[in-house]
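Take a look at this chain, tokens included, and explain the fold to me:
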Amino acid sequence: MTTEIILENVSLTLGSKRILKPLDLSLRSSELTILVGPNGAGKSSLLKLICGDHQPDQGRILFDQIALPHWPLDKLARRRAVMAQSSQIAFPFTVLEVVRMGANLQSVDAYDADRRAMLALEAVDMERLAGQRFQALSGGEQQRVQLARTLAQVWSPCHEGQANFLLLDEPISNLDIRHQIELLQLAKDYTRSGGGCLAVLHDLNIASMFADRLLVMQQGQIVGDGPPNETLTNDLIAQIFGIRLQVNRPPACPIPYILPQTFFDAADPQYMSNPS
């Protein structure tokens, strides 16, 4: 059974600025959806709308056909977990204690919470630092701990036939290449097991490697939606980034890869007349 997060004619204004123009969107379980776009396109704002941190000006957001405001917060927290772009922890918690904050929501007792937390730490290669103070870790290590906390909150991709969701805002920004790939492989495995995942990324090549579905945002609108091999084109990248990038499609590989060439005027007819 497919679980969906559905946005119907949703828009967002913060202060006097229109952040998101009216849009319709459906996020499905068993699918790794990756959201890309330039800085200021509205990617993080869209994720905050979906997780309930922002309220839309109009329209509605449904999770399992129930409007988001009608979900009890404790039940919603057991169905979807959010990894924010940055998280500040003021108190001197250990790594295990931070991850246990997520595990507590699904655990029957303290022993079960510790077990779930350790499983999540093992998944992100951080179990050896379980007793360390969170503040003593590097930025990349802290990010992996926050991912473990998110995983521990909705450890099972499906529960009683209902899919859970991961909502990840720039989860690989501070990670080395090995841990970037391992983290996204975790998200991929989660969706293959029936869960859902929306991740905001900046790296187009890594997004292409892992996305089942690629969403491209520009100025508060979704301007691209589909498999990476169909969605990423020279024209689209020129439109949203204003830089000449070559989308390469090897014959034996379904994954496109992108190489920078030279800065250019996106309105240059000489380039725009030679799309990929």
In short: The two ends are 38 Å apart (CA to CA). The chain has three domains: 1-79+158-232, 88-153, 233-276.
